[in-house]
């Protein structure tokens, strides 16, 4: 059981779960940015921009890993 859980993160399903989780984090960042704009809070706005950049980077990395797993699959080409 532990071995299955260990390899889950490197599986296609694990990558899809990570993508979804990261995308849900984007919703929180969007709410934070909207609130910061309404309150004219520059520090929270900067924080949400940095968080958004981290989310974009994380999604790009996960997409690259998903693509690498697809390269090993004969059916995906």
Helix content: over 70%
Rg measurement, Å: 17 Å
Mean pLDDT comes to: 83
Report the biggest beta sheet as strand number plus sense, adding barrel if it closes: none
Number of helices: 3
The topology string of helices and strands comes to HHH
The secondary structure category is mainly alpha
Structure report:
- This protein is mostly helical and 77 residues long.
- The chain is 86% helix and 0% strand.
- It is built from 3 helices and no strands.
- Helix 2 packs antiparallel against helix 3.
- The radius of gyration is 17 Å and the shape is elongated.
Strand-helix topology:
Blueprint: H1 2-8, H2 12-39, H3 42-72
Helix pairs in contact: 2-3
Keywords: Membrane, Transmembrane, Transmembrane helix
Transmembrane segments: 42-63
List keywords for this structure.
77 residues; mainly alpha; 3 helices; elongated; membrane
Give me a quick take on this structure.
This protein is mainly alpha-helical and 77 residues long.
């Amino acid at each position: 059981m532990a071995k299955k859980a260990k390899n889950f993160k490197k599986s296609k399903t694990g990558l899809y779960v990570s993508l979804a989780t990261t995308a849900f984090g984007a919703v929180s960042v969007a709410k934070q940015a909207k609130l910061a704009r309404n309150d004219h809070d520059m520090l929270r706005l900067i924080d949400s921009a940095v968080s958004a950049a981290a989310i974009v980077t994380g999604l790009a990395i996960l997409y690259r890993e998903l693509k690498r797993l697809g390269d090993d699959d004969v059916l995906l080409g």
